[in-house]
């Protein structure tokens, strides 16, 4: 048993080039009509088990917090099942919070996208206009992410000294503009597993009628997995200046 455990830990610590891992696909589902809710989904095949999964996250954009009933997590413990089946099951559960029809009516705008496989973009900084209407007075918007050593919340991490937290900031480059911390980890939550690093994956904006614009900064989380690094997603909400 000890030999098997050591072999498992060695496989988890292997570099990505020598292993497979599990990079969850990202689906930006959209907003509620008033912008109070943002939803996204991650889905894929779990490394090790081969089971399909789909996780949905419904965020209160004003509080930058999960809504009751979120996250919605589905894993079908059957290799013969499909990712589509897992996604359908997650959708049915998630629609008790908000319907997919309303989300689809209010998709927002993908102002930036940096896939996990992207090598040419800066993973720690993004500068983008918030919409194709380039005349908006607060454009461009800039977000930066920093990694730092943090205490893991998970019960067991193979190499706890490598565990990372992150700090996300917005930078207002206008005269008199200030840098604002949007999120800073104190400890890494157990739900995040054993994270090894972060990168800005996407920025989704939305401009509800009569309200300030909203930006959702979607962050990819690289963590220890069974067969290699796993990639999952989280999102941080902020209000755009008027």
TrEMBL record:
InterPro entries tied to this protein: DUF2259_secreted
Pfam families listed in its UniProt record: DUF2259 (PF10016)
Keywords: Signal
Signal peptide: 1-18
UniProt keyword Signal, yes or no: yes
Name the record gives this protein: DUF2259 domain-containing protein
Organism field: Kumtagia ephedrae
Organism placement in taxonomy: Bacteria, Pseudomonadati, Pseudomonadota, Alphaproteobacteria, Hyphomicrobiales
């Amino acid at each position: 048993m000890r030999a098997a455990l050591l072999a498992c830990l060695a496989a988890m610590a292997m570099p990505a080039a020598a292993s497979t891992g599990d990079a969850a696909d990202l689906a930006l589902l959209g907003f509620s009509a008033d912008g109070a809710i943002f939803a996204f989904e991650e889905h894929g095949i779990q490394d090790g088990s081969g089971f399909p999964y789909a996780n949905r996250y419904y965020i209160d954009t004003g509080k930058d917090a999960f809504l009751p009933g979120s996250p919605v997590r589905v894993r079908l413990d059957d290799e013969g099942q499909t990712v589509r089946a897992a996604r359908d099951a997650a959708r049915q559960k998630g629609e008790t919070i908000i319907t997919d029809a309303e989300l689809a009516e209010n998709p927002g705008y993908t102002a930036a996208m940096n896939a996990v496989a992207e090598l040419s973009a800066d993973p720690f900084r993004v500068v983008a206009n918030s919409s194709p209407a380039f005349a908006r007075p607060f454009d461009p918007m800039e977000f930066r992410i920093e990694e730092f050593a943090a205490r893991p919340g998970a019960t067991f991490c193979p190499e706890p000294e490598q565990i990372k937290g992150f700090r996300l900031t917005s930078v207002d480059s206008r005269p008199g503009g200030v840098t604002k911390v949007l999120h800073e980890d104190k400890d890494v939550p157990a739900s995040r597993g054993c994270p090894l690093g972060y990168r800005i994956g996407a920025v989704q904006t939305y401009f509800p009628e009569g309200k300030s614009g909203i930006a959702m900064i979607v962050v990819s989380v690289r963590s220890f997995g069974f067969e290699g690094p796993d990639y999952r997603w989280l999102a941080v909400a902020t209000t755009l200046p008027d």
